[in-house]
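Hi team,

As requested, here is the filled-out complex form for the S-adenosylmethionine run. I kept the field names the same as last time so the parser does not choke. Let me know if anything looks off before we queue the next batch.

— J.
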Amino acid sequence: MLTQLVQGLHDMGVELQRSQLDSFEAYRDELMRWNQRVNLTAITDPAEIETRHFLDSLTLLYALQGWRQTGSGLRMIDIGSGAGFPGIPVKLVLPDMRLTLLEATGKKVEFLSHMVALLGLRDIDVVHGRAEEVAHSPNHREAYDIAAARAVASLSTLAEVCLPFVSVGGLFVALKKGGIKAEVEDSRAAITRVGGEEARLLEVPLPQLSDGRYLVCSTKAYPSPLQYPRRTGIPFKRPL
Ligand code: SAM
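And here is what came back:
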């Protein structure tokens, strides 16, 4: 069971304990059960959940090289988490991290809260809200070492809604698939405007995910100007 996940993680230098594998199995089974009545994911095949959700989320570990050893104290926010990706798989591998899952849709928030309880996860908050608003709250602004997002928006939009959550010296990471170079080029100005350094691209080297997946990473160089993100919807409609 979970052979692809175990092999992929092994290739990344990570070995899971039995209890962690049990958690991944419980997560997969509950996701499939809920997905019959709540639209959480278009991926319904268990083997694909393993690779395209779990392993793909865990490629984020490539961007966390410096933090991986210490794990504890790492603060991460997953923006537009949906059914928990990439946040929950990363938390299952790095249990000492402090994780916030931010999601705008109520039904998905319900699922996330349910999963957190079912898996007995600690040091994890589920926040129901829009990134454009939550990023202006003093509890969240520049309060994280890592802000990550997968399949939420274009890089320019993501830069505006994610970088304000990151403290100076921390990292914004977008998990992306295919045709990314033009998007990176288009996002240069937006990233600089909200305080990020020029984006770096890491190509995912795993054979299980050989369809051109990348991590786009930008280190926070200076505080984000207070006007960003702009009001709800604008970063999506009119990217910087
Ligand atoms: N990250 C998950 C994944 O990779 O499977 C979910 C991707 S889903 C396509 C995009 C998610 O982002 C949706 O659940 C949506 O509700 C959420 N979302 C979109 N805009 C958002 C915003 N401004 N603030 C918070 N969540 C948002």
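Two things worth flagging: The mean pLDDT is 95. Residues 196 and 221 are 5 Å apart (CA to CA).

Thanks,
J.
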